[in-house]
Amino acid sequence: MGVGHAPCAPARHYEELLEWTGARPQRVVCVRPLVLEAAGSVWEVHAAAIGDAVAAAAAGARGTTSLDLRPAFAAAAGRGEGPFTTDGVHFTDAGATVVAGAFASAIDDIDRGGGAASGKGG
């Protein structure tokens, strides 16, 4: 199934998962999947499509927001940090530091009554 087609199974599963978890924790942050350091790869395209489904599911679930890590990684790369992964998926210490900072900012923003700092709903 390509980009722009009917919702894929992961989208339906995410919606079910959000419904189940929504009644439990005080905060739910859904992270868009991403593939780093592999620009133009088929995996990058698939991650973007699944990320759109994750963001849409989060936007429709009460008390849930999505976190797009791409801006945080772009900012870190702009500062000369990296490499962020060992293979495009598994984080190095530098990548884990970016993720931790983005999560901390997102949770702080939620606690102040906003959405995720790096891209609510997106």
Describe this structure in words.
With 122 residues, the protein is mostly helical. It has one domain (9-111): Rossmann fold. It has helices at 9-22, 42-59, 70-78, 93-111; strands at 28-31, 64-67. It has a two-stranded parallel sheet. Helix 2 links the parallel strand 1 and strand 2 (64-67). The protein starts with 8 loop residues before the first helix and ends in an 11-residue tail after the last helix. The model is unreliable at 117-122 (pLDDT under 50).
Features of this protein?
Rossmann fold; mainly alpha; 122 residues
SSE run: HEHEHH
Structural domain tally: 1
Low-confidence stretches: 117-122
What integer value in Å does the Rg equal?
15 Å
> Any guess at the CATH architecture?
3-Layer(aba) Sandwich
Top CATH class: Alpha Beta
Helix share, percent: 40-55%
| Main sheet overview | 2 strands, parallel
| Topology-level CATH name | Rossmann fold
* Silhouette: globular
Q: What's the pLDDT, averaged over the residues?
A: 78
Looking across the biggest beta sheet, what order are the strands in?
Answer: 1-2
CATH homologous superfamily annotation: SGNH hydrolase
Strand content: 5-15%
Name the structural class: mainly alpha
N/C terminus separation? 21 Å
Number of strands: 2
Number of helices: 4
Give a short summary of the structure.
The protein has about 120 residues and is mainly alpha-helical.
